[in-house]
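This part of the workshop introduces the protein records we will be handling. A record pairs a protein's sequence with a compact description of its fold. Comparing a sequence with its tokens is the quickest way to learn the format. To make this concrete, we reproduce a full record directly below:
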Amino acid sequence: MLELGDSRLPARFWDKVQVVESGCWEWTGGGDGRGYGTCGHDGRMQKAHRVTYTALRSQIPEGLELDHLCRNRCCVNPGHLEAVTHQENLRRGHGSSHARGAEYCRQNAHRLTPENVYTSRDGSRTCGACARATQRKYAAANRDAVNARTRKRRAMERLRNQPDAEKGERDD
């Protein structure tokens, strides 16, 4: 039987696992930026869900990968994981995690709540915290270009809003 705190993994591993209502064992340690937990194990960095699966269930057969049946990428509960082909994993996924209504953003594993989701004009969903951070980084790195485009856009709006006589149009 699979148990949280199993002695086949060190206590420092289990210190980074939190059980939630859904039955998921959520990894609270470091992540890979796409929502998957990462940890040092056997002298190298590995995905945390792969570590629990191989320690508590079995080796992952060659040519297969683990599918999160719970659709929660930071879940390390081996009971929520199944070894499947890459094609099967993609088929089950039905597109991007945002399109499926994922609980966590891909980039930084922020929990996606109605208050923290930005829906763009094309209907795609983005983590609001990540979108704001990206906008801040872009604006800081491109401050001069952003300001020049803003000045140009405002000048064009002023020209459009001027009466025809002020635009300098002549009847020749």
